[in-house]
Every structure is written in structure tokens, then in C-alpha cells.
Amino acid sequence: xxxxxxxxxxxxxxxxxxxxxxxxxxxxxxxxxxxxxxxxxxxxxxxxxxxxxxxxxxxxxxxxxxxxxxxxxxxxxxxxxxxxxxxxxxxxxxxxxxxxxxxxxxxxxxxxxxxxxxxxxxxxxxxxxxxxxxxxxxxxxxxxxxxxxxxxxxxxxxxxxxxxxxxxxxxxxxxxxxxxxxxxxxxxxxxxxxxxxxxxxxxxxxxxxxxxxxxxxxxxxxxxxxxxxxxxxxxxxxxxxxxxxxxxxxxxxxxxx
Amino acid sequence: xxxxxxxxxxxxxxxxxxxxxxxxxxxxxxxxxxxxxxxxxxxxxxxxxxxxxxxxxxxxxxxxxxxxxxxxxxxxxxxxxxxxxxxxxxxxxxxxxxxxxxxxxxxxxxxxxxxxxxxxxxxxxxxxxxxxxxxxxxxxxxxxxxxxxxxxxxxxxxxxxxxxxxxxxxxxxxxxxxxxxxxxxxxxxxxxxxxxxxxxxxxxxxxxxxxxxxxxxxxxxxxxxxxxxxxxxxxxxxxxxxxxxxxxxxxxxx
Lengths: 257, 254
Known about the structure:
Oligomer: heterodimer
CATH class of the largest domain in chain B: Mainly Alpha
Order of helices and strands of chain A: EEEHEEEHHHEHEHEEH
CATH topology of the largest domain in chain B: MetI-like fold
Membrane topology (chain B): Multi-pass membrane protein
Number of strands of chain B: 0
Shape of chain A: globular
Number of domains of chain A: 2
Largest sheet of chain B: none
Helix content of chain B: over 70%
Largest interface: A-B, 24 and 19 residues
Structural class of chain B: mainly alpha
Number of domains of chain B: 2
Main location (chain B): membrane
Order of helices and strands of chain B: HHHHHHHHHH
Family (chain B): Belongs to the binding-protein-dependent transport system permease family.
Shape of chain B: elongated
Number of helices of chain A: 7
Strand content of chain B: under 5%
Distance between the termini of chain A: 57 Å
Radius of gyration of chain B: 22 Å
CATH topology of the largest domain in chain A: Rossmann fold
CATH class of the largest domain in chain A: Alpha Beta
Subcellular location (chain B): Cell membrane
CATH architecture of the largest domain in chain B: Orthogonal Bundle
Strand order of the largest sheet of chain A: 6-7-8-3-9-10
Keywords (chain B): Cell membrane, Membrane, Transmembrane, Transmembrane helix, Transport
CATH superfamily of the largest domain in chain B: MetI-like
């Protein structure tokens, strides 16, 4: 049995008199340590699926188990990283990273030690005493990553975490989270609408389509180690994803003999 | 430097127009004092210690009334903002009570609490209560949902949720209510002290009027204005510190 098992999951939302089907009979199995990208246009249910996996939302039908146990509510074992970072502005960077450790009743000294370890990992050791508002968007998201790692979770859910960042910062963070996935052996479920991002990061790309939200195909990414965004293999997979979204221009040349 | 020039200019403007009004009006000096008379009156009640004692009494009543009101209103606002099913019932009551001037309750206040410090305390309490209560409730309901999600994710339950997340998250918004309430409460201090008490700046005004001492009346009025300004500046300072700490850019009109 897979680590994460999504079986025939549907989710309906009631909006006034209208019923909206955000997820329609979704099936997916995810192994421990996998990096999964949920890719699709807005309204395809990728964020809904992530929210349900993280325990913030409930299924209308179907079952989801993680490690054999059904998902009921959010737990500190599976941490979510949000697009708008979710840092607490009144706490210093260091205290933000310690937040999750406080509920685990870890003594203050040890908390600080852990916070510094992960701030070091994301390259923000010098900013421990800053407040989030003093940092750039990319740095704030690094703090959020450090905060997630600090509680040593099994799964990290990421909901379009880099969507608000500029292109270069985004690529840097993609490389970092990719490296973190390899070095820390976390299972990562990553929601994005950016095709390149999915190809850079994922072990498998789950392509979703809207109305109703469904899984269209799953594309395995057989690239290993750090990925070169310009290598032929990378471009081949990227092409494949583009084709799935029917974004490749059809060849309409007419030939005459 | 610029502020000094502005302040000096304002003071000069007030003194000149005051003197002009006194001359042009031609009233009896016991009814409308000149600036110089007021300065002598000021010196007189500073010298015999009346003014300082009244300031002390008024500030004590004000701080006690304001602090207890604000603490209770924030606590209640936190709970009611969180459980808005209860608030739905209480909101109409609050909306009806809010626009009533606290002074209107005075006969009932005296009936229930008697005379002495209590009536002015209760009036200050009432004046500060509703602005803080309403801004707290609104702030709790407008809290950034991602903070609550983060708290839920990291297993932060009550009462830590309240102390670690909700209260700090809404504090910048409550600060505006606190500021507003401070001004309102100070205005009603005088009204509260005009009845049922024999001390404080409000009583000084009544006493000066009854003794036809317009110079002392004016002294009391100026003192109340200046103290109000000082209280307001101190809370503005506090607000700025909070905004800086929370990383909110300072508002240009502050």
C-alpha cells in the first residue's frame, strides 16, 4: 500500500443554489520521499486537493490515507507552506522558525539551536533577529521553508509557494527546494501552474484539468540529480507537458507533391 | 525647528485673538478674563497646590477608568469576535448603546454608585468601552486566515491560539480603537467630574464658575486641553512603536 493513497476523491462546493465540483473521482498514489507537482490551470482543483491532503478541507466522497491513517485534521507531521508565506510579522525570523517547536514542548535553548540550524540551511543565519517585513519576498519564503523543516515533518505541502516571486528568485528557490528534497528526504507535494517549475522539481507531474477538477495524466520525470533547464532531456519532458495542455502549435504546413 | 516655529505661531495667534476678543467684547473681567489675568490665576492655583492636586485626581480617575474599560472591552471583543454567533445577538444592543452620550446615564449612575470617584470613573469607562469593543470584534473577524491555518498546522490550540496568534495579529487594528477611545474618554472626564464630586479638573471648572473666577475657569480649560494633547501624543508614540514592530509602514497622517 502506498504512503499516500487518494481513492476516488470528490469535492463539491455549494455556492448559493449552485453546486460546484472542484474534484471529480480523483485517484492517486504517492510514495514516501517522492516530489509530486500538481500542475494545471486555475480551477482544476489542485489547491483543493492539497488542502484536503493537508487536513484543512474535507472530501465530499472517497478516502484519503497517509501512512495508512485517514486524514482528519492538520498535523505538525505534515506542514504546509503558503504562497503568502504565513509568517507572523510581530515575531523575529528566529521566533517564526521556532513557532512549530513551541507546541512540541522543546526547551527554549534547543529550539533556538534548531532554528539556527535551519536558518543556516536556507542561508538566512544573519537575519535571525530581523522582522519578516524587513526581508524580501524570496527571503520570507525561505524563512517559511526553514520553519517547516524545523519541526522535521514527513510531508511538506507547498501551495504555489513561489508564484509571487520574480523569475530569478523563483529559479533559485526551485533549486534550493529541490536540493532540500534530496538531502532531507521529505515527501513534497507542490502545487503550481508553471510548467517549467514542475519539470525542474517533480519526480512525477500530475496534470489536472478543470470543470470538473480531474487528473488528466501523470508524467514521470526521469531526470536525476540537479536539473539543467537547457538540457535536451529537460526540453523533451517540457515539450511533453506542453503537448498535454495542447499548447504546442500544430503543424499546419501543407505539402504538395 | 519647524515645529517650534509652528507652535510659537499658533500660541501668538491664540493670545492675540484672545486679547482682541476681550477688548472688543468689553465684558466684566469676572466673566471673561484677559490672557494676563489668566496667567496670574494660573500662578495662584499652582502656588497653593490646587491645580496639581486636581490634575493628579483627574489623571488617576482617567487612567483607572480608561485602563479597566480598555482591558475589559478587549477581552470581551476577543471572545465575541471569535464566537460571532453570540455577537450577532449582542451587536444590536451595542449599536443602540454606543451613540448615547455617557453623561445621559448620570442620574442612574449616581443612583447605583453614589457620589465620589465612581460617577466619573463609570462615565470614562463607558466612553472608552464601545470604540475598543467594536474595533476588537471587527479586528478578530478580519484576521488573516493564513495565521489561523499556520496555527492549526503547528498544533497551536487555545489558550495559546489567543495569546500567541490572535491577539498580536489584531493589535495594530485595536490600537486605532485605543487611540480613539482615549480622546473620547478624556472629553467625558470633565463631564463626569462636574457632578457628584468635589475634586478634579471638572470640579475646578464648576467651582471657578460658581465663584465668578473666570481666570481660573480658563486655566482649567487650558490645562485640560494641554493634558489631552500630551495623552494623545503618548499613545501616538506607542502606536508608532507597534507599527514599527509589526512592520506596518507608518501612516503619513499620524
